[in-house]
Amino acid sequence: MNISCMTISIPIDVDTLEEIKELIQITMLEDQLNYTSILSVDELTDYHLRGLCVLAYDDDTDKLVGILSAVDRIATLDFEWSAVVLPSARRKGIGEQLVMELTRNLELRGAGSDLALVPEKAEAGKQMLKKLGYIHHFSERTMAANAEKKELTSKIEISPYSIINESDIIEVLVSAFGDTVEEARELIAFNIQSPNRRLMQVTVEDEIVGTASIVDDSEKLWVTALAVHEKARGKGIASTILNWSKNEAYRLGKPFVYLDVETDNEDALSVYKRAGFKTVHHTNFYKKG
Fold it and tell me: Which residue numbers delimit the N-acetyltransferase domain (predicted)?
């Protein structure tokens, strides 16, 4: 099998997206794994997303046999990527070719770092990354809960972000995540500039104590960057944000609320489980060794 790789920038065209979806559908049936989210398929036509796709074609049939997508989600030149090869075309070095082309493109773009995402059960992907010198960095759970009407406490107010509270939101992000002030500013800018995202602020007695970003993603609502200032923890702030998100998803006619959490974050996992979130799948993150 002779393979040709080509790189295209995001957003991609509709015809290429259909090719990718067809490959993923075939692969999902064989592997019993859903690659749609990990490859950011629903975002590949988004003009506001920065990144690229590397496509591998069989020269004889002109058929797509491999796809790698890499996204720079916050426009900091830090890329997250994942790849899938058609089951019938595996063990032919296509995965390695995709990664080599990615590496070349990241160098041209001046990328600061890259992280590879692999489903927990994708053993072939793990072995390929190990062969290429990547090492396990951390793991995440994707969790989901049903959208529903929930009773909210009147003492905790959740409202859209206001620029006049930027310094307070930065303080929350620095306290919760250990971000630098500049990293917090970049996260705020990303969430207020992306059309499918809304940055929320959480107020208790006229003081900003938390924040979260809400992402509109077709059939589901995502909660990301949920942060509570360390001085306000243990007061039900995170639980209120999660219940508010269930209300919001219900209002928008979406059946589910999704979120990601690192597997070793026991405090957050406990909060999410109590709020009715259940693990959908696990993802491993790898960095260059």
Answer: 12-153, 156-289
